[in-house]
Write the structure tokens for this entry.
Amino acid sequence: MKKLSLVGFFAFGLGLVFLIYRLVAPPTVEQKQQASYDTSTEQFIVADDSETLSKMTSKQAGIYFYGFPECPWCQELLPIVNDALQGEKASAYVVDIHGNSYSEEDAATLKTFYQLNVKQKEVLVPFLVFINQEGQVKTHVGTIEGHNAKKEKMTKNQREELMKALRDLVIWSQS
């Protein structure tokens, strides 16, 4: 009997240590990525990738965001996009270009649109497309000039500069 209670006490102690560790341990890289790449807010519309691309290529008014959760630039940009959209009571379609439903055909469609509108051969993300009521297109690639998200986070001034640029584009897209 004494042996059984000692085993139970040991198991309880081990469980307690694990619980305390989970409460105080720093978040994993995956947890950080999930926290900064949150497309579940009401500002983001996650729809069928092909349908979203079709809306964009037919120049349907709206805002379109292309990226993927592991992208450091996307992780920094997405929360700022969310705030800009929220401030202007707008929403954006979101496409995860590394998602299971994103096809080779989708990639080819995006590449063609990107080359026509950004004038670069290879698609870089994060890629934002703003289309106004007249079918005019403006784009935004990356975060801000000179920022390397693999090396450092944006400064407060950089975030403010980016927020202003995004807000202006959101307002323009609503015209």
